[in-house]
Design a protein that fits this description.
The radius of gyration is 22 Å and the shape is globular. An 8-stranded antiparallel beta sheet has the order 16-15-12-13-14-17-21-19, with helices on both faces. The protein has a 6-stranded mixed beta sheet with strand order 1-4-3-2-6-7. The chain has a 4-stranded mixed beta sheet with strand order 5-20-18-22. It is α+β, with helices and mostly antiparallel strands. Helix 10 packs parallel to helix 12. It is built from 13 helices and 22 strands. The protein folds into 4 domains: 141 residues, no CATH class; 62 residues, 2-Layer Sandwich (Dna Ligase, domain 1), CATH 3.30.1490; 136 residues, D-amino Acid Aminotransferase, Chain A, domain 1, CATH 3.30.470.20; 94 residues.
């Protein structure tokens, strides 16, 4: 594979580490932190650097360890580790992007000789190092809490709150409306519970305890459909009535303790059945509905804070035509809208602490910075939309995408432009010659503008272009 760079890597790594790309080079005058997660969230690291430079008193840079197999990489100090993709390369000489779960990737990095030696080298030059993850995971064992610190929520607390059954019970306990349903101990109970709704001519939503972006969950209108989708008989399931609705708002917030919760943004999700595909901002919901959604989110955040959760989290809701709000789920991690919300705050609230600084203060000090202001999610001079192009079948990419400006750059251009302005880009496109297993990202489309209709038109144009860039992979 032409993308493998073996200089600067000890040969012993290749006896055990599934390294597909590496351009990491340490400089003695810099301090470093680690980013561990999908490449699509790499842009958040730039907002953490200024705050860490004040702490270390010298230039700070990021070392990124990601699982994404791309034809080209535009970031310095980045290494790609992916066990399943590496097997394809070793056995067949193919560039195949296989997306591990967050837990699997954290486990791979924890066992990585490259990560361990990088930490050793960095800690010889600085007293401690932060590991910054998009999602805190119990499988990340490199953290010792003293010299290697996790910059994120406590992994065990986060894992508990990512449980869909725990979330449903929490919402009921704090008095937030939820779709009618039951927490079931096994598949047989789930089928019995669903049957009660089917007799009334209603559909149901069924989810395993852990599910994200539509995985491990489904809508169903018969017991046969549930049995076709789920095979594990002895695990818990959540079964709820499918509520007809028109809006799918998503909220990004930060909790610092059992009282302090900062609501950063409210955006509208684009859902295809039960699968998340992207979001738009500002929300189209009425002010009174948004106000109530924010208050529900504060209730959730305070409950999480009382259980020891510190850091960013997201809440998803559904809203029907009458303005009735129902809680759907908590994401005990950063949201897919985190970078866009951070960039919107940068230009909407100049001089305000960044979302990364607010999160850092919440995690390390257990409080929010003083004098915070929340954005109005119903009005904004900047509007944006995102769309994640995924393939539900195995594909190969045949088309090269031209280089666009990065996401931070298009936000800057639009915010500083006079009159109507819009920009749309594609980031993290796999690139020609790369194969993708079903369910993974092919590319992310981002559009930013001052006019919602024009912004959305450009977003759809990029979406169409990415969907035309790949073909089915017959193998």
């Amino acid at each position: 594979m032409s993308q493998i760079i073996r200089n600067r890597i000890s040969p012993r790594y290749f006896q055990r580490d599934p390294i597909l790309f590496n351009n990491i080079k340490l400089e003695p005058d810099k301090a470093y932190f680690f980013y561990i997660g999908d490449i699509k969230n790499h842009g958040l690291n730039a907002f953490l650097i200024p705050y860490l430079e004040r702490i270390y008193g010298r230039p700070v840079d990021c070392i990124a360890l990601v699982p994404d197999v791309l034809a080209h990489y535009g970031y310095p100090n980045l290494a790609v580790l992916n066990k399943e993709s590496y097997r394809y390369h070793a056995d067949k000489g193919m560039m195949v992007n296989c997306r591990p779960t967050a837990g699997q990737f954290a486990q791979q990095i924890s066992a990585s000789l490259l990560a361990q030696e990088l930490l050793e080298n960095i800690l010889s030059e600085q007293d401690f190092v932060y590991i910054y993850m998009f999602e805190s995971r119990p499988e990340m064992t490199l953290v010792d809490g003293e010299r290697v610190k996790l910059l994120g929520p406590d992994p065990s607390v986060a894992h508990r709150f990512n449980n869909k059954i725990i979330q449903y019970q929490m919402a009921c306990e704090v008095g937030i409306p939820v779709p009618e349903g039951l927490c079931c101990n096994c598949l047989e109970e789930a089928l019995d519970s669903a049957q009660k709704f089917f007799r009334s001519g209603e559909e149901v939503f069924v989810s395993e305890s852990y599910s994200a972006a539509g995985s491990n969950s489904t809508f169903a209108c018969s017991c046969e459909e549930i049995q076709q989708r789920f095979i594990e008989t002895d695990q818990p399931y959540l079964v709820t009535r499918r509520v007809p609705h028109s809006y799918d708002p998503t909220v990004l917030a930060v909790v610092a303790n059992e009282q302090e919760v900062y609501v950063a943004s409210v955006a509208d999700q684009r859902m295809e059945e039960n699968r998340f595909r992207g979001s738009t901002f500002p929300t189209v919901l009425k002010e009174e509905v948004v106000k109530q959604i924010k208050e529900y989110t504060r209730l959730v955040g305070r409950y999480m804070g009382s259980q020891g959760y510190r850091g960013m989290f997201g809440c998803d809701y559904i809203v029907n035509d009458n303005g009735q709000i129902y809680f759907v789920e908590v994401n005990a991690r950063k949201q897919g809208t985190t970078l866009e919300s951070t960039l919107t705050m940068l230009y909407s609230l100049p001089g305000h602490p960044s979302l990364s600084e607010i999160e850092f203060c919440a995690i390390t000090r257990g409080r929010l910075p003083h004098g915070l202001t929340e954005m109005d999610p119903t009005r904004s001079e900047i509007c944006w939309g995102t769309y994640n192009v995924k393939s539900m079948q195995d594909i190969r990419v045949v088309q090269k995408f031209p280089y666009f400006q990065g996401e931070a750059e298009i936000f800057r251009q639009v915010s500083q432009a006079k009159g109507v302005s819009s920009r749309a880009i594609v980031e993290d496109h796999l690139g020609p010659g790369v194969y993708q297993r079903a369910g993974g990202f092919v590319g992310r489309c981002i559009s930013v503008g001052k006019n919602f209709a024009e912004m959305y038109r450009q977003l759809e144009k990029r979406e169409t272009q990415v969907k035309a860039s790949f073909r089915p992979w017959h193998h």
